[in-house]
Amino acid sequence: MYRHPDFVTVLIKSTDFKSLRFLQPCVSQPLAWKPRRILRPPTNFEDLFARYYHRECMKCSKHAECCSSSSGLFISLTSSMILVSRGRQSAIWGTVYLDAHKEEDRNLKRGKPLYLCETRLRWLEYDWADQEWQRVYQWYSMFHSNVFINSIRDCHLHQ
Q1: Boundaries of every domain in the chain
Q2: Residue ranges of the E3 ubiquitin-protein ligase UBR-like C-terminal domain (predicted)?
Q3: CB neighbours of 49 closer than 8 A, spacing ≥ 6?
């Protein structure tokens, strides 16, 4: 039976083992691929910080495991850096928030207002969709999470 490539046919085992047909069509549905997407962060970093600082996320790791093949993106509110989690590895991607002069304020040392940079957000969306991580320079094993945590604290030293 020919099916157009835009349709998926789900097959199940037949309960009639005496017949020669062990598989039969069960459901035929249009194929719909959904690209990986990220939530759009607020335009102003101060809004993000005020809303989520001191809030604990109990569902983040479970959500990453169930919905993203153990991959996840997180924003460090103490540094404005994007953290990438992939299985048992993590990395610092960079930041999508820049000041009025299009400069990073890593670890929020200068205290300047930070705004969402659309170009960097597109780069992040591209890396997330393709799982390529072209802007990640070092992956850290979560078996040695102290090294990764110290790197987040000192990320202003890594350029």
Answers
A1: 1-33, 52-157
A2: 58-129
A3: 77
